[in-house]
Amino acid sequence: MEQVSTFTILQKRIFHEWIAFIQIKYHLKKKFNDMTTRRTFIKNTSLTIAAFSVANTSLFANPLKGEITGLQLYSVRDAMKKDPLATLEKLAKQGYKYVEHANYVDRKFYGYEPKEFKKILKDLGMSMPSGHTVFQDSHWDAGSKDFTDAWKYTVEDAAFMGQDYVISPSLADNLRQDKDTLLGFMEIYNKNGELCKASGMKFGYHNHDFEFTTKVGDEILYDIILKNTDPDLVIQQLDIGNMENGGAKALDWMKKYPGRFQSLHVKDEIESSGEHGKYESTILGTGIVDVKGVLDLARKNYEGTHFIIEVEAYQGKDPMDVVESCLAQMNKWGY
User: Fold this and answer.
1) Beta strand spans in the chain (E)
2) How distant is the alpha carbon of residue 69 from its chain centre?
3) Architecture of domain 68-333 in CATH?
4) Which of the residues 214, 227, 314, 322 has the least number of beta carbons within 10 Å of its own beta carbon?
5) pLDDT band at 65; cut points 50, 70, 90
6) For residue range 302-331, what is the model confidence (pLDDT) as tens digits?
7) Can you tell me the mean pLDDT for 176-180?
């Protein structure tokens, strides 16, 4: 049976709650007309307002509490490099409202000052709730025990853009050789979360495949990252495709750490010709990953999940056509 769209559910919900509002308004008027004393009026009004609050606390709220479906712009990296504005216009026409950047250089997004890029997105009816910028050990001054100005600017510009998450998509090899070094860097991740929290955001980490094949001491690297980052400060963006090359399954890790993955990189995978490892990404719904099962569990575990589509291989197809097909599949699944 085809799943009812979120928009249809929301329409029905607003309709029924509006009827409830009209009914409450009618009873309020009746109580006012029937009241005999000021004390009776105050009592009846208070009860009615309380009833309205219970019945309508979510009338204007997003029933999915912040859930979004967006696109990691690395999926169309060549087009963004050639003509960012034209590419964003095409994505907006396809139906994308949210994007995640993968290009922040010299305090510019794809060559645009933050103010310019924010206006471009706004004019297209789009926004950028997250972005990828690699956090390196060089961004932390061990002497002053503080972040460098370069990293503080990264956080400042992310906040200006209205991001929820500042996500680092890498962990340098030298930081995962011994446990003490790794644990020390996880403490800096938590401090990064505090820095981001001051601007209403969270810091985040995005996995590849090595997190599931690398052991530090006697523990899997990704276990150490999850156990030593504060969930209130640091989110985990689970790339459900990358981990396939590490022999890991998204559903297993989501069940092991429920609620920890507040953002997903939504991918499907097929066997690769070799360029991308054993597997490479493909159009959603055509590969080996139980993408729909992952999405549904993510929604169950965390109501405000960011579902960020990413495609890195195209099997000879135009990347713009591929991301359009992926969004259509997400919509068909109810996302």
Assistant:
1) 68-72, 98-101, 104-105, 108-109, 127-132, 140-141, 146-147, 165-168, 202-206, 215-216, 219-220, 234-239, 263-266, 268-271, 279-282, 306-309
2) 8
3) Alpha-Beta Barrel (3.20)
4) 227
5) low
6) 999 999 999 999 999 999 999 999 999 999
7) 95
